[in-house]
Amino acid sequence: MAAVTLLIQNGTLITAGDTYQADLAIAGEKIVALGQNLSQQEPGGVAEILDASGLLVIPGGIDPHVHLQYPQGPNRVVSSDDWFTGTVAAACGGTTTVIDFVEAGPGETWMDAFESRLGESEYQAVIDYGFHMSFNRADERSLAEARSVIEAGMPSFKIYMAYDNIRLTDAEMLIALETLKEHGGLPIVHAENHDVIKHLVGRHRAKGHVEPRWHPHTRPAAGEAEATQRALALAEIVDSPMHLVHVSAAGGLDAIRRCRERGQPVTGEVCTQHLLLTDALCASPGFEPAKYIMAPPLRTNADTEAMWGGLENGNLDFVVTDHCPFTLAQKRGERRTPEFRRLPEGTVATPPEEPWSDGVPPFNQIPGGAPGVETRVPLLHHFGVNQGRLSLNQFVYHTSTAAAKLFGLYPRKGTIAPGSDADLVLFDPNCEVTISADALHQNCDYTPYQGMQVRGWPRSVLSRGEVIVRDGEFVGPEGRGRYLKRGFYA
Ligand SMILES: [Zn+2]
Description:
The chain has helices at residues 38-41, 83-92, 110-121, 140-151, 170-183, 194-206, 221-238, 250-261, 272-276, 301-313, 328-331, 376-386, 392-406, and strands at residues 6-14, 19-27, 30-35, 48-51, 56-59, 61-63, 71-72, 77-78, 95-102, 128-134, 156-160, 186-190, 242-244, 266-271, 318-320, 424-434, 453-463, 466-470, 473-474.
């Protein structure tokens, strides 16, 4: 056995399948042994010992749906976490792997877009990360690139059914599914009905319903349910597996359940916000609901209850954040790039075309998204485990293991076993925290979870054997994170 560099003693180890007391030995980047009284077997050879008495030792969280430093929409407003602040926030919140997206611009090849995204991440990211490729067009050149993209470690492709410019029509989606099936790629689908949204945005604007509170009215749950059913029908026609991102409507989840019962290979994810927040937050006049402008929007209490049910019975596989923060100034229409420690390359900071007269931009001009990467694991622990909805093993499964399996990272990530990367969280289940934006590391001046009280927070976090968070604060070097060349889904 290689020389042990770090020993974690007296912790309660939790995996998706087991709960047990054991010591854990790490050599370099890997877990090398689990067992009782490991220290006595390694006299003098241990560089560091962490005492995990009273703590849970869990696999590092995996958030496979984040948007760091992401230029959104026609105005290219860039999300306010860059690769450093976003991954530091993730780490402090117990997440040691994120998967972000590559979206090629017009005229740019998918592989060129990947290279330029990598150019942003590789000197800044502090945890390991991968990418999904956006299947944002179905032209000959892109189809011919699919194989190279998969071989470069991105076997999952995002397909948008909504949004001008990047969405695929049903016919294009069939072509995409056929192409991915041929090469072994996994389609991951944003299911909302584009025409419904377009129509309702027009209707509401014509009626003068332009305040942020109108946003959810333009993206109804029935539109998500319909698009989910349609996506799954297309998958059935092509005989392709499919993953649904950010399921938020009970009707969409129901479509997934029916397909699974028939044996169709379908998986689904849910965002923290669609488990914990409802559209009641979007009801007030004025600017306040702008904080919750995102797609899909916040849904009803019945929908959030359905999402918890989906996690409990396994029709939803894991919990993600869709972390895509914008500062309140950005939400208010300020086009200026947020205060990155350094400006991301290629970012054009355009001034506002017209300042909004009353300080409240129309809902369809507000960048969509909210922060969440740092709070996901503690929130799921508190509202899942403490409130009796999930076992600790289900909590680990939904925050780490299931995503590792679907996205080709298992068993390197997502579990605690000899040979796996030592990506671990020493989680204090009794630490009481009142969530507040100013105590978080996310580069955003608000959190949708402001004031929520949770019991349980990460104390120390290891990434590939290195302690990068101690007592809640990031202590690692910048740029230590590595790009993960992912394999096929399991
Ligand atoms: Zn997203």
